[in-house]
Specification:
Layout lengths: L99 E4 L2 E4 L1 H10 L3 H11 L5 H14 L5 H21 L7 H12 L5 H14 L5 H14 L5 H14 L5 H14 L5 H12 L7 H14 L4 H13 L6 H13 L5 H13 L6 H14 L4 H13 L6 H14 L4 H14 L5 H13 L5 H13 L6 H13 L7 H6 L1
Antiparallel strand pairs: 1-2
Length: 510
């Protein structure tokens, strides 16, 4: 297996990260601004800052648990450093130094040093000033670095910052589109990652331009570049043609020995999010190298891998057992969403790991207040699927779920009541609250939701006339959407409940 995935020789000399492809440090000069270097005394230019990867908050899907991936960037680590001491001068004119050049009578940053100034920005305000003051000098590296930096420094929990970041990305996207054909194997995935990280309206012309250039540069992509490219594509939800997708997977397989644990996790998460079934050699290689790095995976990575395995239907009992063993030891590090995802994935894969479940239950119980509507619904569904009988935990879960029922979507409502019916749990307080919310949300139920909720109501002995009447009106309008399984289940339920006021014509239609 190890020989099979021997690294393919590079077709080019290794490209150094942008952050280290810099000339010698800027000599002390005078400057009027930390962003556009001008000949004004008693000012100091900003030196390089310290960069790092930021954690990508999880995102949800429509048909599975909320999930996310944490992505890095391919521009390399920013060297540590602080601002250089300025040297006071009495004169208002200086001679351009090694890292400065003369442009329109003004001493501005050289292209190499400008990249360093961009990377030193720690917030959107300073970054916006750099961009506005120097965009006339931007080449493809500067644009890629600026977009990457916007993604890195904006606060996703602050909507005003998100709006500013998206506006900046739209402006930079125009510049990027002009220079995309000059971008190399480091810039292309970095821009794609940044676009996916910030979100907002998708510049489809830019995305298609990146994908077109990727075909030419793919042989030069490094491991983290491939991972970030796929992650960005998955976040943007843009389609890629089958041939390019296959070429990217083949390039990833050749690079697996160079993949770090985070890149491995992000790559599989991206493929699962895109719904791309992994081929045999790719999957075998991924599992082989991931198995050697299991202890290094974070809680988020472990939950994302489990989610991806469940989403893609990957069955490898040996690897999954090892994965759950590592996850069990790291459960204290799992956040609420990661706990819900892990149990949902285990249930979807049909894995009943008693040791993992025994450790999961007390850990999840302590974090139940942090579970959102989807986490609660998925956890309840998984408990029913796995046949977990822990009355104290289920009662605690239902108490939290009752308070958060107004946040439940149609799928969450249907799944939660069906899980209760399968477990045979009758909780009057939860059921009464569920009926009030479900009656309002019934028009949003699809055919499967309608059929499952009716079956659950019948199983639990619910005879609420208002709910049944509303259900009947919605079901009549959507009857054409019912498949054979939904119709069969519905007809069986209606035949067994003579106490419900259902007209004969609807019964016959089923």
């Amino acid at each position: 297996m190890q020989q099979m995935f021997k690294t393919r020789p590079m077709l080019h000399s290794r490209i150094q990260p942008l952050s280290v492809c810099q000339p010698k440090p800027l000599r002390r000069t005078t400057t009027a601004s930390p962003y556009v270097i001008r000949a004004t005394p008693n000012e100091r230019p900003i030196g390089p800052g310290r960069g790092g990867q930021r954690k990508e908050p999880p995102r949800g899907g429509d048909n599975g648990p909320a999930v996310g991936g944490k992505a890095g960037h391919s521009l390399g680590k920013v060297p540590a450093g602080g601002s250089q001491q300025g040297r006071e001068k009495s004169s208002k004119s200086i001679t351009p130094r090694r890292n400065n050049y003369q442009k329109n009578g003004t001493v501005t940053a050289s292209p190499a040093h400008l990249n360093k100034i961009i990377m030193a920005c720690r917030n959107l305000t300073s970054l916006d000033q750099v961009i506005k003051g120097n965009d006339h000098s931007f080449d493809e590296r500067h644009v890629a670095t600026a977009m990457n930096r916007v993604a890195m420094v904006h606060d996703r929990g602050n909507q005003s910052q998100v709006d500013v970041a998206q506006r900046m990305m739209q402006d930079l996207g125009v510049l990027s589109l002009q220079k995309v054909k000059k971008m190399d194997a480091r810039c292309l995935p970095s821009v794609m990652w940044a676009l996916g990280s910030v979100g907002g309206p998708v510049n489809l012309d830019l995305v298609q331009g990146i994908l077109a250039c990727t075909k030419e540069e793919l042989a030069s992509f490094e491991a983290i570049g491939i991972s970030n490219l796929l992650w960005g594509i998955a976040k943007l939800k843009v389609p890629i043609d089958a041939i390019l997708g296959q070429e990217i997977m083949e390039a990833a397989a050749w690079r697996f020995p160079e993949f770090e644990h985070q890149s491995l996790s992000n790559t599989l998460w991206a493929l699962a999010t895109m719904g791309k079934p992994s081929n045999g050699p790719f999957l075998e290689g991924w599992i082989y190298f991931a198995a050697t790095k299991l202890p290094k995976f974070t809680a988020q990575a472990l939950s994302n891998i489990l989610w991806a395995f469940a989403k893609l239907g990957i069955e490898d009992d040996t690897f999954i057992a090892a994965l759950l063993s590592v996850a069990k030891r790291k459960l204290p590090d799992f956040k609420a969403q990661e706990l819900a995802i892990s149990l949902w994935a285990a249930a979807t894969l049909g894995i009943e790991d008693e040791a993992f479940i025994a450790a999961w239950l007390p850990m999840a119980k302590g974090k139940l207040p942090g579970f959102n509507a989807q986490d609660l619904s998925n956890s309840l569904w998984a408990i029913a699927k796995l046949g977990i009988e822990d009355e104290a935990f289920i009662a605690a879960l239902l108490r939290v779920a009752k308070r958060k029922l107004p946040d439940f979507e149609a799928q969450n409502l249907s799944n939660s009541l069906r899980a209760m019916a399968k477990l045979g749990i009758e909780d009057e307080a939860f059921t009464a609250a569920w009926l009030r919310v479900a009656e309002r949300e019934l028009p949003k139920f699809n055919a499967q939701n309608l059929s499952n909720s009716l079956w659950a109501a019948a199983t639990l002995g619910i005879a609420d006339e208002a709910f049944i009447a509303t259900w009947l009106r919605v079901a009549k309008r959507k009857l054409a959407e019912f498949n054979s399984k939904d119709l069969q289940q519905t007809s069986i339920v209606l035949a067994s409940r003579d106490d419900w006021n259902i007209d004969t014509g609807f019964k016959d239609s089923c």
